[in-house]
Inverse folding.
């Protein structure tokens, strides 16, 4: 079982980094093959919105994203970690997320993978955005195994035994969900099917040339 830990905070020695280390240790102890990717150490350019990936399946920008996309498609599950900034996910993670939206999300290349989202905030805000974006929920449709949202204070308190225990339990649940290939539950399955119907009926069908690569992927999956 391959678990990819994605550290999205630009503060590479901060609270998120501490959570990533805890997750790495726990997942490794449970027998997973674990790798941590630090987004701050990768070259990630802004998505220019040319939409050519929808048609061709590839992005014309020259940076470290192709390697990251390959690492993500090879993984069985993710632990995605980042702190809240201005009641939202931090800009570095958002930049990365925009780059996977149409390359991995629309073609549904992550739909069978499981995700644990770990976020933190100084005092308040950003919980919903963290769950949706770190959980790779909206366009990527991964199976959300869990979301932990910690309040750290400013200055940041170090992770204590209670936090370690909660991260340990959440990582164990992620490993179990991957092993069991846990489904998304009736509500999740219905919402995913509705999304697919809307996209198929009202978006792809109207512009098949624009969405050629996405349609190819959906056909391979039997969704079209
Ligand atoms: C630019 C910036 C904006 C922030 N915005 C918020 C905020 O809106 N609400 C809040 O409670 N904490 C905010 N914080 C505090 C962080 O959410 C908190 O320190 C978090 O643990 C950071 O995780 P990190 O150590 O991984 O970077 C902000 C921190 C920074 C640097």
């Amino acid at each position: 079982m391959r678990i990819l830990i994605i550290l999205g905070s630009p503060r590479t020695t901060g609270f998120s980094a501490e959570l990533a280390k805890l997750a790495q240790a726990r997942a490794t102890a449970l027998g997973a093959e674990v790798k941590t990717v630090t987004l701050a150490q990768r070259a990630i350019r802004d998505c220019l919105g040319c939409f050519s990936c929808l048609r061709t399946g590839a992005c014309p920008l020259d940076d470290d994203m192709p390697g990251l996309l390959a690492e993500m498609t090879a993984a069985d599950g993710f632990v995605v970690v980042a702190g809240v900034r201005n009641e939202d996910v931090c800009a570095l993670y958002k930049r990365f997320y925009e780059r996977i939206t149409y390359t991995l999300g629309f073609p549904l290349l992550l739909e069978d993978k499981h995700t644990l989202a770990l976020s933190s905030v100084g005092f308040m805000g950003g919980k919903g955005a963290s769950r949706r974006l770190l959980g790779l929920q909206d366009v990527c449709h991964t199976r959300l195994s869990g979301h932990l949202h910690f309040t750290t204070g400013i200055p940041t308190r170090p992770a204590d035994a209670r936090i370690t225990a909660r991260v340990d339990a959440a990582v164990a649940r992620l490993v179990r969900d991957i092993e069991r290939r846990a489904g998304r539950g009736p509500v999740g399955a219905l919402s995913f099917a509705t999304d697919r119907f809307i996209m198929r009926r009202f978006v792809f069908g109207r512009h098949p040339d624009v969405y050629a690569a996405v349609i190819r992927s959906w056909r391979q999956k039997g969704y079209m």
The chain has a mean pLDDT of 97. The first strand starts at residue 2 and ends at 7. Residues 161-180 form the longest helix (20 residues). Helices lie at 15-29, 52-56, 65-74, 91-105, 127-134, 161-180, 185-203, 212-220.
